[in-house]
Design a protein that fits this description.
The complex is a heterodimer of chains A (792) and B (158). By secondary structure, chain A is an alpha+beta fold. Helix content of chain A is 30%, strand content 24%. In chain A, helix 8 packs parallel to helix 9. The chains are: A alpha+beta (792), B alpha+beta (158).
Chain lengths: 792, 158
């Protein structure tokens, strides 16, 4: 394995060179199909001119000069503004809508559920969420009515003048109330989805004489994605061209699918164009289908372009957040520290409609047993309905919730059998040839002990563990160090990629430039740069000659959504294959040989296009033959590849102010191959910062099913003063199924911080906190309780 | 079309050019810059002075333009992100942000660039604590700030 410094070493060090620290480069890989093996061979023989290097970003310049145009920067002639009138009730029967005095209502375009020309649902999985509530509302802030006007200030007054009248119905607000059930609010039992994963016979382990049984319950709160650009779109509708929407989004084809149903139009009469997108993190996976539909309905009824951009408060209270969760663990462990049975109940709060909850639940379920080899595992999971705005995609997608529970619980298990946290994990780490909870045989070399050693060395873990324990006695500021070990699967779960059937195109122009055609969006992570690196590397061409086309459903094929850590690994692999087909075509036409220069390539492209017309190749995803997944039994190869990681957090807890702070953070991970060291480290650092926020700062306060702190003033995300040095280290072990050997990394860094930090807080304070966010108030309750107890 | 009554004329200097804004006295400077002058590099992130995406330099001070009424900028010198580069030549901060990976999605970047320019004007050789404090009014959700710190360090080396 090769180690590569990510350049994320906090503030005190310089550039982001890739440093080889280990002499041995282990490039083991799983057996691939024929194409994979060929590509892998090519990768190994390539000198990596571009892959692994911090080439200049394609998307960079316009962003630092302010020239990049986001949707709110665009103005179309005759454009109106649109707003949404939302339900003030968490659940009720709508009895009337009252338009207040003093507003020139005849100047306004008004849209209600009755106006919907096609299907009044956001097409996604179960299609249970209406675009506009009709008769009943199921959560506060549910859209009921839409207004458009040219004057956005008058529009805001008008929105406030509309009163929704309703007869309230009983509502449920959390997992317990939903499962009780206090009231049936969805389907027959409030349950959107359940999964059962079984390995071995867990029911037989509890009565064995040689085991200790350890139980625990763990909870996580909602989290707002808080991309700095709020949701926004501009819609145009004309009888000739149909519906066109431009906007901030991760998944243009999700929006496309939803608009086709909403307007009941043929696919070619709906066009979706992604504008520069100011962050997503999952928050712009499904929600843009909603706002795009609303703006399009107003545009359709008014005959004018309509811009709809949420202000921060609306974006925070009305759009999706990370699912709150509750996980119960029951673990059987031998006195020697071998895990023999794990029973895990994992429940998430999906909010009022099904949206993506079943898929979030799936990923959380599969990750719930972690990177450990345990012979008997049963995981039962449920996504339940509550009367709050639907929870949705957020980086990690269920995995951070279940991994938090497991990695907190294992520290408890270790203590129960008198082992250190690291020793317990070392005795149970999964290795090549062993199976995960779903029965997936690990076919690649996995070196979790090596990652752990490196992470401990970088943090001086052992000596700090001892020193802090010694120095904390009587100190006001208590220090602690803790860690978490985990994995994150890249790409859609199970058969997901097979059903998606993603397509990517590559085109060579007459001048020899290469254009990559994909619907995968650049949302800050550097999609255009990485795709250009992959294509240029595959073809041996200059990076500058590759252009990645802006996603527009009229121009690019459906390469699937920009989610699930799949863009580099899955879509990037298709980019590589499509690029290679251009070369094969030119070779087949006798225009180039095995090796060629940039100008020979350009000449060949000119020659080819003048003879045959456009040179464009599309490739479609084909699941590698060795991936087997059983959707019914939820068994088999859940993911094509996993990234593996050990994260270490050092904290301090002030026993006067009850604030916990992260003082140092080290993230060590094996990610296949690093395509762009600066961008890759940026992904890890950003994810760790969001993880720190989720753990210590970001507290969604719910009151009657509504977010009570929908402002940046009192929903706190970390600032530059709150984030410790984040030191990022990559190990490389190329994965044959990924371009140049890369695996997905985008979500991975969200999984580790919460358990690592709370493990460190336990080390510092002796308190085993089992929930996030851990606010100072919660620390105070625990520590003051201790003082009160001691005084008795 | 006759102009709405109540608007006032506000002479000021924006990015080195003398302009006279026509705006309601309490119009937000943010909106006037974006809508009147079409300087859309200044972004709205929260509208309540928390995130810093709308940062501009007002007579050399870093301010949140969402909290500044138009009437207050009479005679003032305003610098927005569009006025930071020297024509095609990027400012050292912009170049460093580009090379160090300090801009991911880019929406906080204009404000962050101005905060960094402001920091280096007042503190040409900042310590880590100076950088953390100098940028603490500008929120970034993508980077975890590490690459932005790198960019500031690189920029002051130039």
């Amino acid at each position: 394995m090769r180690e590569c410094d990510g350049g994320g070493r906090g503030i005190d060090r310089g550039d982001a060179r890739c440093v080889k620290l280990a002499a041995i480069i282990v490039r083991s890989s799983r057996k691939g199909n024929k194409e994979d093996r060929q590509t892998n061979r090519m990768t190994l023989s390539t000198k990596d001119r571009l892959v692994g290097r911090p080439v200049p970003r394609k998307e960079g310049r316009a962003k630092v000069t302010g020239a990049a145009r986001y949707v709110d920067d665009l103005v179309l002639p005759g454009m109106l503004h649109g707003v949404t009138v939302r339900s003030p009730f968490p659940r009720g029967r709508i009895t009337g809508v009252h338009f207040g005095e003093g507003i020139p209502w005849d100047e306004f375009t008004v849209v209600t559920a009755r106006d919907v020309p096609g299907h009044n649902y956001v097409a996604l999985i179960l299609n249970d969420q209406p675009y506009l509530a009709d008769r009943v509302v199921n959560h506060a802030e549910e859209p009921v009515l839409l207004l458009a006007h040219a004057d956005k200030y008058l529009l805001e007054e008008a929105r406030r003048a509309v009163k929704i009248e309703a007869e309230p119905l009983p509502a449920v607000f959390d997992i317990e109330e939903s499962l009780e059930p206090k009231e049936i609010i969805w389907g027959a039992d409030n349950v959107f989805k359940t999964f059962l994963v079984e390995k071995g016979k867990v029911e037989e382990v509890w009565d064995r004489g040689d085991v200790v049984v350890v139980e625990g319950e763990y909870r996580t709160g909602a989290q707002e994605q808080l991309y700095i650009e709020t949701n926004g779109v501009i819609a145009e509708v004309s009888p000739e061209t149909g519906v066109t929407v431009r906007g901030s989004m991760q998944c243009p084809y999700y929006v496309h699918k939803a608009l086709v149903k909403l307007f009941d139009l043929p696919e070619d009469k709906v066009r979706v164009i992604q504008t520069e997108t100011g962050g997503g993190f999952g928050g712009k996976e499904e929600y843009p289908s909603m706002i795009a539909g609303h703006a399009a309905l107003l545009a359709w009824k008014s005959g004018r372009p309509v811009k709809m951009v949420y202000d921060r408060a609306e974006d925070m209270v009305a759009t999706t957040k990370r699912h709150p969760s509750r996980t119960r663990h029951r673990t059987a462990v031998t006195r020697g520290g071998k895990l023999v049975g794990m029973e895990i109940d994992f429940d998430i709060d999906g909010g009022a409609y099904a949206t993506l909850s079943s898929v979030v639940l799936s990923r959380g379920t599969i990750h719930a047993a972690g990177p450990y080899n345990c012979p008997n595992v049963r995981i039962r999971s449920r996504a339940v309905a509550t009367n709050v705005p639907p929870h949705g995609a957020f980086r990690g997608f269920g995995a951070p919730q279940s991994i938090f529970a497991l990695e907190r619980h294992l520290d408890k298990v270790a203590a129960a059998v008198g082992l250190t946290p690291e020793e317990l994990r070392r005795r149970n780490f999964i290795t090549k040839g062993e199976t995960t909870a779903t029965g997936q045989v690990i076919r690649e070399d996995v070196d979790l002990p090596g990652l752990l050693d490196r992470a401990f060395e970088l943090t001086d873990y052992q000596s700090k563990r001892e020193r802090f324990a010694r120095e904390n006695e009587g100190a006001r500021r208590k220090r602690g160090i803790g860690f978490a070990t985990f994995m994150h699967g890249a790409g859609f779960t199970g058969s997901g990629e097979k059903y998606l059937q993603s397509i990517v195109g590559c085109e060579a122009t007459a001048e020899g430039r290469v254009r990559v055609l994909a619907a995968s969006t650049e949302i800050g992570q550097g999609t255009k740069t990485v795709f250009a690196q992959i294509a240029a590397e595959a073809l041996g061409l200059d990076y500058e000659t590759v252009e990645v086309v802006q996603p527009d459903t009229a121009d690019v094929p459906n390469s699937g959504p920009t989610v699930a850590s799949r863009t580099t690994m899955i879509v990037g692999k298709l980019v590589e294959s499509a690029a290679l087909q251009l070369r094969e075509t030119l070779k087949g036409a006798g225009l180039i040989s095995d090796s060629y220069t940039q100008s020979e390539w350009a000449r060949a492209c000119g020659e080819y296009t003048s003879r045959h017309g456009a040179l464009r190749k599309h490739v479609q995803y084909q699941q590698p033959a060795e991936i087997e997944w059983d959707d019914e039994r939820y068994r088999g190869d859940a993911y094509g590849a996993y990234a593996w990681a050990v994260y270490v957090a050092e904290v301090s807890v002030d026993t006067l102010t009850y604030e916990a702070r992260v003082e140092d953070f080290v993230a060590v991970q094996e990610v296949g191959r690093v395509i762009h060291p600066v961008l890759a480290a940026g992904q890890i650092e950003g994810g760790v910062a969001q993880g720190i926020g989720w753990t210590l700062y970001e507290n969604v306060v719910w009151r009657g099913g509504r977010m009570a702190n929908g402002q940046m003033t009192n929903y706190i995300i970390p600032t530059s003063a709150d984030i410790p040095p984040i030191r990022v280290h990559f190990f490389e072990n190329p994965y044959a199924g990924g371009p140049g050997g890369a695996k997905g990394i985008g979500e991975l860094p969200m999984d580790g911080p919460a358990p690592a930090i709370l493990n460190a807080v336990e080390h510092a304070t002796g308190h085993a906190f089992d929930f996030v966010p851990l606010t100072p108030e919660a620390v105070m309750d625990a520590l003051e309780g201790e003082t009160a107890g001691a005084a008795k | 079309m006759s102009e709405s009554p109540g608007k006032i004329s506000v002479p000021c200097d924006v990015n080195g050019e003398a302009v006279t804004l026509r705006a309601y006295p309490f119009a937000r400077l943010l909106d006037v810059l974006r809508e009147e002058l079409k300087l859309t590099g200044t972004k709205e992130g929260c509208g309540e002075g928390e995130c810093g995406a709308c940062s501009v330099l007002l007579d050399g001070e870093l301010v949140n333009s969402c909290l500044v009424p138009a009437a207050q900028v009479e005679g003032a010198n305003i610098q927005t992100v569009e006025g930071v580069a020297d024509g095609e030549r990027l400012h050292a901060v912009q170049q460093a942000m580009l090379e160090s990976g300090g801009a991911q999605c880019g929406i906080c970047t204009p404000g962050m660039v101005l905060a960094a320019v402001n920091l280096l004007r007042h503190t040409p050789d900042p310590t880590e604590a100076d950088i953390r404090e100098g940028l603490a009014g500008n929120l970034c959700r993508c980077t975890g700030y590490m690459k932005i710190f790198d960019a500031v360090i690189h920029a002051c080396k130039k």
